Each structure stands twice: as structure tokens, then as C-alpha cells.
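Handout, section B. The chain below has 153 residues.
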Amino acid sequence: MPYCNKIDLIQARSEELIKDLSNESGDKSESIDDEIVADRIRQADSLIDGYLRGRLPVPIADTPDETPELIKSISTDLSIYYLYKRVSGMLLPDDIKELYKEALRLLKDIQKGVLTIDFPKDEETISAAPTIVKINKTAADRKFNDDAFIGFD
């Protein structure tokens, strides 16, 4: 179900940075901690699903290769944000804060229907989204009953 993967994070930033952000502070490990990266991707994807549930069927894709580019980009940005937050606490670089704000803005736009997603899957995925209709009228609210329409064809 992940919308992005470690390769996407490395392509968005650098392998050295992802390695530093995924390892314990002061630990100069030679490799990226895959478990921590996967956990931050899950955290980002959970936020995405939370925003889009009710508007689109979630999960949106089963693998990063099936994920629409916009969602993959949002997942990547949020995952990087969560990696920084893990290490830096609240002392985040301004560009990382902006990535997070932009990702949330995009998710809100998708949620409102202002922004649409290009799905690489078939049309069944899109039509599977639930339609929510709320009605606040009752029979007592009617101005005309059925008898008023007799004789009109």
C-alpha cells in the first residue's frame, strides 16, 4: 500500500540526507534504516488516506508504481517532513515546513474536488468512490401533495 518508496525519497533529496535522517542522531551508519523510512512513509500515507477517505477509494494504489504522480509526490514530501521531524523535533528547515504546508493544501484541494487526480488504473477505480447525499427535507416540508398534480401529464 505505500504510495512512495525509499528510491523516491532519495531522488527527491539525496541518499546521504535520507541516511542521516533515518539513523539515530550521531550514528554515522553506512546505510539507510529501511524500517524507519518505511514507518515514516506509512505515517505520510495514513495522513493522505485520512484526507481522501470519502472522496476517493483508499488505498489509492497497491504499489508505488500504480500510484498517481501527484499522490506519490505528496507522499514523498510528507515522508521527508516526518523524517526531519523525527530528528529535528520542531526545528525544521523553512523549505521542509513549506513542503508540508503545500502537501496539506493539495490534499485539501483534492478533498474538496478542486483538484483531480489522474489515475493510471482503469475507470472502475474512480467510479468506486462513494457518493454521499444528505437530504434535510421530510414529507411534512412538501408544499404540494400528489393530488395537486392530477391531470398534468
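Note. The mean pLDDT is 85. Compare this with the example in section A.
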